[in-house]
Amino acid sequence: MIYPIVRIRSVVEFLASVAGAIASACAVLGVHDLAWRRDPAGIWRDGMKVAACGIHVARGVTMHGFALNVDTPDAMWRRIKPCGLDVPQLSMTRAGGRAIRVEDVAIEVGPRVVASLARATPPEIVR
Prior knowledge:
By secondary structure, the protein is α+β, with helices and mostly antiparallel strands. Helices cover about 35% and strands about 20% of the residues.
């Protein structure tokens, strides 16, 4: 889960920036060709969703964010409908063709998202 709570200037810029950071981290871990899509919101590859995006903005401050599918077994998607959508899901493990650890994802995603927030948010971060 990637839920930055920050003040933003532009919802579109914020989402694209964070999605780009996530896709960049995924590429380092061997998951390539990911793309941000606004409708339905998420990070996709070949018509399958790798990360769901649900955001709420109140008074210019974000709440919620992205849920990245690292290694959810395919069978579980029969019970889970991210954002209520019935769309094909793709785990990083399946997309990369090898097991990917959540710890490795955190190491790659965290710094990239923080750097993207510096570009997409005003100087002060809401605490």
